[in-house]
Write a structure and sequence with these properties.
Elements: H1 2-17, H2 21-29, H3 34-39, E1 42-45, H4 61-66, E2 72-74, H5 79-92, E3 100-103, H6 116-120, H7 125-141, E4 146-147, H8 171-186, E5 199-203, H9 222-229, H10 231-238, E6 243-246, E7 250-251, E8 254-255, H11 260-270, E9 276-278, H12 287-290, H13 296-305, E10 311-312, H14 316-326, H15 332-348, H16 361-367, H17 371-384, E11 386-390, E12 403-407, H18 409-412, H19 433-441, E13 446-450, H20 463-471, E14 475-481, H21 502-511, E15 516-521, H22 529-534, E16 537-540, H23 548-556, E17 620-627, E18 631-633, E19 638-646, E20 652-662, E21 673-682, E22 687-694, E23 701-702, E24 708-709, E25 713-720, E26 726-734
Parallel strand pairs: 1-2, 1-10, 2-3, 3-4, 5-6, 6-9, 12-13, 12-14, 14-15, 15-16, 18-26
Antiparallel strand pairs: 7-8, 11-16, 17-19, 19-22, 20-21, 20-25, 23-24, 25-26
The structure holds alpha-D-glucopyranose.
């Protein structure tokens, strides 16, 4: 008994000494002047980070730090530079409040992983979490406290270049990936020096841009927004993300950076998070062109009133917040609440305890491009590649071929595999697809190369050389797609065809009549119906990161069996957009026998490749789809069982997907909704008994009254290898 009492008293005393982050933030807040409070809400860029020693702070930044007039920098990298600036804050400013350094580490710091859309195509949240963990190890070793990721914007329009940065069109898969990345970046202990603060962005609805044109208007019904676009942001916040980033777009007529609906009602009142919100680059300043603020002072007022806490590069808070308080135009409580959230994040990161904990040049040298991290780039990329077509099992190729023609500008590119937003990714670290193939097949096989054509323009003068090398070879491997700057921010395209004359080149190569494999390197779905019709083997490689060459070679020659699945629908033609799997049925779903139904006169309604699609070098058979009950009450769960057999000749991974359909609701419901998935590995001939649980939460939606509820009625269950090829059964929910 005595021992128990002793432990009890010890734990009480530790607790009372260990103030909460909130209490510690309040104690600092109480000491701050108005100018110092405003300073914590100001973020500047330290010059574009293109290398360890660049990213010099902007002119006069040392003085701003010394006076406590800036609380954060982005695009300042390396222990050395961040340490130099942190030293001024922690030793020369009046209150010694540490700076927080942020950077867009969205798929790697120096060691570049596949772009996020590729990573999501692995359908492997634990692998995606590992990728974020590795990114955090590297970035934190270089003085970075905070990444502006995960980008969780749902995107149904591949004209939008930023689809590359996210996880695709589905709210459930997007939520799983959002939470995985937050866990990976923040780890189990945010105060450790190898974890970094996550930032769920772009809050909210940015991917709904009309026409897929970046920064364009977003106008969604609240129901559509809450059912399809909002879940991944919520998943990121529920996973503990310490920050969010306000998006550029307006939604429902109000720009996010002035939206009390988003920032106060949803974020603070419904989700009750103390995560702070940083604006996007000058998004507060853009309230003026949006037409909701007449000047920067009014923009600052709208921003702080909507609880956008930190102003990235608009100079709005820096220039006007203190005066707005002095003039009584905003309540100091709004500023205090914002500063408190920022200080809490800095306390959680441990920056007050040791402002220099991320500044260790020796650790930085040892960590950057460590074997563990570089190996992980390959591990992730191998599961991100999607096999779109493999007629007559042309793939995998035989390593004993006599000669191979490798064609295409992208085959030898060492910068494009990095993709967009690659932070300090270095093209010198990239293994090109050509080199990957050359290293794989060894010196006995003749490898012939021709560029064929550039990515853009209509110059076909290189075609003949490509045709000649193809004629000399047993098989043709053509690498086509987009350059890395054709997706990402401000990179929308009005067409989704292969750019330039690449498809014409493929048509010329096709005429030769040799086996031809196409490798796609791109950041968005492409409209490639001719390829699907004529090319026997098509591999979606996305931008695979630094391990591009070895990864593609492993897949092409069968050392690894591809297991990726699409997380975005590929349209046949851009005119089909928006086209996504979880669409509504309408009152006149297409019926080929009835003219007066919903279809195009000149095109089939179906996509080129559906959501969830991806092939393997083996085959899988689904059988025995059963439920443990055919009827449940609203508060009960349901188990779903299915057998999956590897009916092929080699081991493979399969993503077993579970969809539901709510047949009748108080509002219209999608024809399918992904509610779970499991990635399993099967040896040839092996069968696994896969089990899912459908809980009440998986069946809720916003009903006719905008209440988030579960309704009784008939439901269909679909399980399969993608969103179209499924086994089906049904159940009922009774009152
Ligand atoms: C950009 C992007 C955002 C990024 C920020 C900082 O404009 O919209 O995703 O995190 O600025 O680089």
């Amino acid at each position: 008994m005595k021992k128990l009492l002793f432990i009890f008293f010890i734990s009480i005393s530790i607790f009372s000494q260990k103030k909460s982050f909130e209490q510690r933030a309040d104690s600092v807040l109480a000491l701050m002047t108005l100018e110092e409070k405003v300073g914590q809400l100001v973020q500047y860029s330290g010059g574009w980070a293109t290398g360890v020693e660049t990213g010099k702070p902007t002119e006069g930044s040392d003085e701003l730090i010394r006076k406590g007039k800036v609380g954060s920098f982005l695009n300042v990298v390396s222990s050395k530079l961040t340490g130099k600036m942190q030293k001024i804050a922690a030793e020369e400013s009046r209150l010694k409040i540490p700076l927080i350094f942020g950077l867009d580490v969205i798929h790697g710091y120096v060691s570049t992983f596949p772009v996020p859309l590729a990573e999501a195509s692995s359908w492997n949240p634990s692998l995606v979490e590992k990728s974020a963990r590795m990114q955090a190890l590297e970035a934190s070793s270089a003085g970075i406290h905070w990444t502006f990721n995960p980008m969780v914007d749902i995107a149904r329009d591949p004209r939008w270049g930023r689809i590359m940065e996210g996880s695709g069109e589905d709210p459930y898969l997007g939520s799983q990936m959002a939470a995985a990345r937050v866990r990976g970046y923040q780890g189990n202990d945010l105060s450790a020096n190898n974890t970094i603060l996550a930032c769920v962005k772009h809050y909210a609805g940015y991917g709904g841009a009309e026409g897929g044109r970046d920064y364009n208007t977003v106008d969604l019904s609240e129901r559509n927004f809450r059912d399809f676009y909002l879940p991944p942001y919520k998943a990121g916040v529920e996973a503990g993300a310490g920050s969010l980033m306000a998006s550029f777009n307006e939604i429902g007529g109000v720009p996010s950076s002035a939206s009390k609906f988003l920032m106060t009602q949803i974020l603070r009142n419904e989700w009750k998070t103390d995560a702070f919100v940083v604006s996007d680059w000058n998004s507060i300043g853009e309230l003026i062109p949006h037409g909701v603020a007449k000047d920067l002072k009014e923009a600052a007022k709208l921003g702080i009133e909507s609880t956008v806490d930190m102003d990235m590069e608009a100079n709005a808070y820096y220039s006007h917040l203190a005066n707005l308080v002095r003039e009584g135009k905003i309540d100091i409580k709004l500023v205090d609440a914002a500063v408190r959230r920022v200080l809490i994040a800095k306390f959680k990161l441990g920056l007050f305890d040791d402002p220099f904990k991320y500044c260790n040049e020796e650790r930085e040298q040892k960590t950057i491009k460590s074997k563990e991290i570089v190996d992980a780039t390959k591990e992730v990329a191998l599961e991100s590649i999607v096999l779109l077509k493999n007629e007559k099992n042309l793939l995998p190729l035989d390593k004993k071929l006599k000669s191979i023609a490798v064609v295409g500008y992208l085959a030898k590119s060492i910068s494009d595999p990095l993709g967009g937003w690659s932070a300090l990714g270095d093209s010198n670290d990239v293994v090109s697809i050509f080199d990957g193939i050359k290293n794989k097949i060894g010196k006995d096989v003749k490898i012939n190369y021709a560029k064929g054509c550039k990515i853009t323009g209509n110059d076909k003068s290189g075609f003949n050389e490509a045709i000649n090398v193809a004629k000399l070879s047993d098989v043709i491997i053509a690498v086509v797609g987009e350059t890395r700057n054709m997706s990402g921010e401000a990179s929308s395209r009005a067409t989704l065809d292969l750019p330039g004359v690449q498809e014409d080149l493929l048509k010329e190569l096709y005429k030769i009549g040799k086996p031809i494999v196409v490798i796609l390197m791109n950041g968005r779905p492409l409209t490639i119906p001719w390829l699907q019709e004529n090319i026997p083997a098509i591999v979606e490689a996305w931008y695979p990161g630094i391990s591009a060459g070895s990864v593609v070679a492993d897949i092409l020659f069968g050392d690894v069996n591809p297991s990726g699945k699409l997380t975005v629908t590929f349209p046949r033609y851009v005119g089909q957009i928006p086209i996504y799997y979880n669409h509504k049925n309408t009152g006149r779903p297409h019926d080929p026998k009835n003219h007066y139904t919903s279809y195009y006169m000149d095109l089939d309604n179906t996509p080129l490749y559906p959501f969830g699609f991806g092939l393997s070098y083996t085959t899988f058979e689904y059988s025995n789809l059963t439920l443990d009950k055919k009827e449940i009450k609203k508060n009960e769960s349901l188990k779903v069982f299915v057998d999956v057999k590897n009916t092929g000749t080699r081991e493979g991974k399969e993503v077993v997907q579970l969809y539901i359909r709510d047949l009748v609701g108080s509002v219209t419901r999608p024809v399918k909704e992904l509610k779970d998935f499991k990635k399993i590995s099967l040896k040839p001939g092996e069968t696994k008994h896969v089990e899912f649980t459908i809980t009440p939460d998986k069946l809720k939606f916003y009903d006719i009254n905008m209440d988030y509820v579960l309704e009784s009625g008939d439901f269909q269950v679909f399980v399969g290898t993608n969103s179209v090829d499924v086994k089906e059964t049904s159940f009922q929910i009774v009152e």
